[in-house]
Amino acid sequence: MPAEVSIGPTDIIGLVDVQPTFMPGGELPVAGGETVVSAINRLLARAFVHAFATQDWHPPGHASFASAHAGKSPYEAIELAYGSQILWPDHAVQGTPSAAIHPAIELARVEVIIRKGFHPGIDSYSTFFENARTTATGLDGWLRQRGFRRLFLTGLATDFCVGWSAEDAVRLGYDVVVIEDACRGIGLPTADGRTTLDDTRARLVGLGVRFIRSDDLVA
Q1: What percentage of the chain reaches a pLDDT higher than 70?
Q2: CATH number of the domain that residue 199 is part of
Q3: Count of structural domains, the chain
Q4: CA distances, 44 to each of 11, 67, 102, 141 (Å)
Q5: Residue range 194-211, pLDDT digits in tens
Q6: Residue 52 pairs with which residues in a beta bridge?
Q7: Known active-site residue 161
Q8: Is 196 helix (H, G, I), strand (E, B) or coil?
Q9: What is the mean pLDDT of residues 14-19?
Q10: Which of 17, 56, 90, 159 is flagged as catalytic?
Q11: What's the domain range around 208?
């Protein structure tokens, strides 16, 4: 049984892309995505004083949309200037209701909201860097100035925006914990018969990321 985890003053919970666009009925639904809302609200109420949130925030015709590439379909991969890019259904379009943070999320403890993916030609999975790996979102600077050292990540989707954020956070020097029951993943198949969820978890564990459940936390 995992040891309990105590929350301290340098700990913060991150709400990654908890938007209707990624939930059943949205443009890019993650199975079970709506269940993260109640899990996150419980964590905000009982464990965390500090929180940040992110939003995918794409302009119409974004380069990551399959609809922006003639003859291409969602979930195909193409090469863009910065490397391989999975093409997605149009989603998280700026100003639409489905791009907002889910209205049931209790925002009182969310101190900053970072928008990402707003440059038309570059996608941004990570909450820290665009996919070209050269442009920062500013989240790292905000966290450092506030003195946070350990990040507890939740949201959508485990194998993309949560996973890339966790990986970057480790490389930036943070301790990183993923709260599994407050995340959901897409699980695209990979060439070796695994899924993107399998590969993400193995990669993150190898980097020292800890996976826990909400019940392991002590306020």
Answers
A1: 98
A2: 3.40.50.850
A3: 1
A4: 12, 37, 15, 23
A5: 899 999 999 999 999 999
A6: 14, 112
A7: yes
A8: helix
A9: 98
A10: 17
A11: 10-57+90-218
Residue 76 maps to a domain = no
Closest by CA position to 90, among listed 151, 170, 2, 27: 27
Residue 181 appears among annotated catalytic residues: no
Q: Is the pLDDT of residue 104 over 80?
A: yes
**Which of 56, 116, 123, 183 is an active site residue?**
116
Q: Please report the beta strands in the chain, taking only residues with DSSP state E, as ranges in sequence order.
A: 5-6, 11-16, 51-56, 77-80, 83-86, 110-116, 150-156, 175-184, 210-212, 217-218
Written as one string, the DSSP assignment of 65-84 is: BGGGSTT--TT-EEEETTEE
Q: How far apart are CA 74 and CA 64, in angstroms?
A: 9
Q: Tell me the average pLDDT of the chain.
A: 95
| 43 inside domain | yes
Q: Residue 50's closest CA among 118, 137, 145, 123?
A: 145
Mean pLDDT throughout 31-47? 96
Question: Which among 90, 159, 161, 183 is annotated as catalytic?
Answer: 161
4 within domain boundaries: no
Active site residue 192: no
Cβ atoms within 10 Å of 141's Cβ, excluding its own: 10
